[in-house]
Amino acid sequence: MMKNNSSGPSLDRHQGYNYADENSDGLGCCGWLLTIFSWCVVCLTFPLSLCVCMKVVQEYERAVIFRLGRLLSGGAKGPGIFFVLPCIESYTKVDLRTVSFDVPPQEVLTKDSVTVSVDAVVYYRVSNATVSVANVENAHHSTRLLAQTTLRNVLGTKNLAEILSEREAISNSMQTALDSATDQWGIKVERVEIKDVRLPVQLQRAMAAEAEAAREARAKVIAAEGENKAAHALKEASEVMNESSSALQLRYLQTLNTISAEKNSTIIFPLPIEFLSHFCKEK
């Protein structure tokens, strides 16, 4: 005869519980008597007993049944109709739909010693109804508490710049850490999102001043580059005009046309270059 030293069902992470000792011999004499008595009550009160014994769970629900404190073999029941013996069996409904909750704002000290307030939202669902009932007292409450501590632990290893610019990577890290921890509770964490990062007012002002200074520096660099290009263009234009006197005359006429288009009381007529060069030769 094989001796079993375990006091209850053992846990397999991927296959659930092992129900090897949940056979008819495990009930004992008292368990058998109570089971027979329960069946007698059901038969004597039939069909009224159906109102008490027959239960229904929805498509998105599962029922975890306990008989005399032991989990029934076969795992959770549902969806549909299942049968519960009065007095000796009890059941717990488990919702398998995805649930979301907000992680309250957490005051976090970053790696570069900046205090920020960060909140997040977590999406999860029950992947194993039996484990979520038998292995943890309140799987939903435990997942919420673990999400808060995980958020602080993950953000504590990041700099402020990384928190502001790498939200997706931080969300993936939190999801991996939460999912590995809640797997033994029958919980599957599907998604984690960082909602908001609140900075101290003094830090916001300092960052705004830094950003403004950076923008002014870029504007001065762009203006200097523009002046440099304009100077090169003027130099090339002067070289072209120097090669042809007619080009310079055309430029004079264009300038005169521009001045006359405006409503000026004084108009300056440029003298031809040949006329000026004639006086220069006489001297």
Automatic annotation (TrEMBL):
Primary site of residence: membrane
Protein biosynthesis found in the keyword field: no
Keywords annotated in UniProt: Membrane, Transmembrane, Transmembrane helix
Protein origin, superkingdom: Eukaryota
GO CC annotations on file: plasma membrane
Transmembrane regions: 32-57
Localization per record: Membrane
SMART domains reported for this sequence: PHB
Database matches in Pfam families: Band_7
Segment forming the signal sequence: none
Domain Band: 52-211
Similarity-based family: Belongs to the band 7/mec-2 family.
Protein name: Band 7 domain-containing protein
Source organism of the structure: Capitella teleta (Polychaete worm)
Lineage: Eukaryota, Metazoa, Spiralia, Lophotrochozoa, Annelida
